[in-house]
Amino acid sequence: MIEIANLSFGYNKKKLLYKNLTLSLEAGSIYGLLGKNGAGKSTLLKNLIGLLFPTNGDIWVNGFLPKKRLPSFLETIYFIPEEVYVPSLTIDRYINLFAPFYPNFSKENMIRHLEELDVKTADKLNTLSFGQQKKFIIAFGLACNTKVLLLDEPTNGLDIPSKKRFRKLIAAEMNDDRMIFISTHQIRDLDNLIDRVVIVDEGELLLNASVATIAEKLLFTTVDEMPAGDKILYAEESLLGIYVVTENKNTAESKVNLEHLFNAVTENPEIIKQIFN
Amino acid sequence: MNFRQNQPIYLQIAEYVCEQILLKKWKLGDKVMSIRDIAVVMEVNPNTVQRAYDFLQQRNIITNKRGVGYFTEEDAMERILTFRKEQFMDNELPVFFRNLYLLDIDVKELKNQYDQFVKDNFKNK
Amino acid sequence: MNNTFNIHRFGLLFKKTLLERPMQLFGLTALSLSIVFIMYVLGKMLAGFEDGQNISFMLGLVGGGCFLASFVFSYFTSNAMGSNYITLPASAFEKWLCGVLITGVFYLLLFLLFYRFIDTLFVGIYHRNLDANGPFYRQLYDQVQIFPYDGFIANKAILLFVNFSGAMLVGSLYFNKVNFIKVALLICGFWLGSWVLNLLIAQAMIQHVNNAMPYWLVWIDVNKDEGRIELPENIMRVVSIFIQFIIPATLWMLAWLRLKEKEF
Lengths: 277, 125, 264
Prior knowledge:
Chain A is α/β, with parallel strands linked by helices and 277 residues long. Chain A is built from 10 helices and 12 strands. Chain C has a domain at 7-168.
C-alpha cells in the first residue's frame, strides 16, 4: 500500500533529515510513527501525501507517486495536519462543498462521527474552539473512506473526554481495507490502538514491527532487582519496582509498553536491529 | 477498561470474555460481542481483539459461525475454567505468594478467612 | 479518469473556490468596483471628465485586478490551509484555471460592464444637462464622450493589467505571506530599475536627453524646445508583441508550473 524506497529528504541538500529510508506499510493496520521532536515525523507524512518531494528515492502510495499530486491519487488519501483549517462555513455547507471530491465519502458516517465526537453547531465552523474544529476535520477525514488516512498528532488539542471519543471512533472505523498512519509523541493517548510501530530517529528507520512481534522478541517486566546477565535495553525506577525491557528469551509474552519500547529502541538501535532481523 | 501492566492485551481481552461467561452475563451457546464492539468499548485495535478471539477459538471456547459472528461453545465451561486457572496460576498467584512470603503469613492461617469470604460473597452458590 | 481536466470536477472546484471564502472574494470585488466609482466621481470633479475617466479606468482594472490576482492563490498563509488546498483532489491545472478565470475573465468582464454602466450614466447626465441652445453646445457635447475601450489608455491599462496581475499570480505562489505588498514592491522596483536603465542607455546613445520613458520614447532638449524620439515602427511592433503577449503569457503559465511544483 505504501512503499518507500531509499528515501532521502532534506529541507536543504546538505543537511538531510532522512537518509536512505526504506519502509513498506500494509493495509489493515493502525501504524504509530514515533520519533523525538524534530525527528521529521510531519515531514515524512508530508512526503507521503505529496506536499513535499523526496530529495532522492521513491515513494509509492496506492500505486501512485505522491509528488505528482494526481486527483486520482489525492482522492485515495486524506491528511489531517496537527493544526487544522476550517473555512467560515456551516457543517452542511462544508460537506456540500468538500465531500464531492471524495468518491467514497459517506454522509451517514459523517453524521454519526460528529455525534460520537460530540461536535454540533448550526454556526460557522470557524467559530468553534480549536479542539472542536479538529474533531470536525477528523470526522470528515474518516468519512472520506480513503484507503490511507494520515494523522499528525491527532490528540493534540483534544480534551480528556474527546481523546476517549477519538479512540473509540478509530477503533470502530478501522477495517482491513484501510490504513491509518498516526504520527505522535503522545503515546499514552493511543497506546492500545496502535498495532504496528514505526520508530525513526536521526534520519533512520529503527523499527517497523507489529506489537505482536515486539511482544515475542522483547520482554517488558517489573522487577525488584536488576536481573543479572541479561542485557538491559531500558530500565526505569517506579514505586512498583523497576520497569525493564530485555530481550524475550522464553516464549511468555508481556504487555508492550510503547513508551519504554521507544526509549529502549532509541538508546540501543544496533541491538534492536539484531534482535528484529 | 483498565488493562494490567504485565499481561499482553489480547490475553486480557480473552480473560474478559471468559469472565463474562463465568459471571453468567453471557450464556453458553450464545453470541458473544462482535470484534468491533469489543474494540470500541475497550478502545483497542480490532486486530488485537481478533487475536484474542483466535486464541479463544484455538482453545475451543468460542466458535466462528461464518457471516453470523462468534458464539461460545455449549460445553466450554470446563475449558474456560482451565484457561482461567492457568492465567491465575501464572499471573496472580506469584504476586499473592510473594506478598504472603514478605508479610510472613502462614498459608494455613488463610483457610478460615477464605471460607468466610466465599460465604459472604457467593452465598447463592 | 482524466487527471488533468475533468469538467465535473472542475465545476466542483469552481463552486468550492467561489463559496469557500465568499466574503473575501466578493467583498474584494465589490471594494474594487466601489473605489472605481469614487475615483470616477472624484477625478471628474477635481481633474475634469476625461482625466477622471482615465484614472478610474486605470486604477480599477490594474489595481483591482492585482488585488484579486494576489488573492486567488493566497492559501498559503497557514500550514493547515495550504495543505488543505494542495491535497484537495483536483489537478494543478484545474486549480490554476480557477484562479485565471476569476481574475482574467470574470473580474475583467465584470469591471468592463460596470465601468461602461457608470460611464454611460455620467456621460448621459452631462449631455442632458447641457443647454442645447447654448453657443458652444456642439463643442461642449463633443468634449465628453463615453470612454473608448479600444483607445490608447484602455490599451495601456489592459497591458499593465495582464502583466501586473500575472506577476501577482506568480508572486502569491512564491511568497506565502503578505504577497500583495511584496509583489507590488517588486514591480515598483522593476519599474524604477527599467526606467533608470532605459534612461542610462538613452543617454549613452543620444545626446541632450531630457527624459526617457521605457520603452519607446525619449525626450531630448533641442535648444529651448523639446523633441521626441520614438522607436521605429517595425521594432516597436516586436517589442509590443513581447509586452502584450509573450511576457504576460509566460507569467500566467509560470503560475501553473509553480502551483504544480509548489512544496509546502
